[in-house]
């Protein structure tokens, strides 16, 4: 956001990220973004634009969120090794309206990512950095996992966790009444 010229502040919502059984990854990411935005609007006021996002990694029919522990992170990285997956980010914009009301706009983006085959030693060393522990799919493309990625098809910033191309487009167009 800063690199794109936006002035903002970060508010970390206190919500539990729990998937409903059988929930599609896109629906889950959007629902989590809406809950995060709602939490911020309720506590911080309705007079500012709020942008919230949630990212998941989808491998086949399995949705990977943030790992519970190092063992879970290892299993995720082993599953992703040598495979293609999709990174989905759901976003929710809350825009102030007259009389303390807000309008919501939700959208999502998806990016295909291909990992090269990873050696166990690489996975172990990466987990030891602690970086995977707060990342969907247990990796950060903008960090130590950059070398794991063979190629992507779609938005790089989406894989980082916020599809800036789409966010900028959405912020440039007011919500119709």
Structure description:
With 177 residues, the chain is of the alpha+beta class. The chain has one domain (25-172): Maf protein, CATH 3.90.950. Helices cover 31% and strands 25% of the residues. The protein is built from five helices and five strands. The protein has helices spanning 25-44, 70-80, 120-128, 156-160, 164-172; strands spanning 50-59, 62-64, 84-96, 102-115, 149-153. A five-stranded antiparallel beta sheet has the order 2-1-3-4-5. A hairpin with a 5-residue loop joins strand 3 (84-96) and strand 4. Helix 2 crosses helix 3. The longest helix is centred in the N-terminal third of the chain and has 20 residues, at 25-44. It starts with 24 loop residues before the first helix and ends in a 5-residue tail after the last helix. The mean pLDDT is 92.
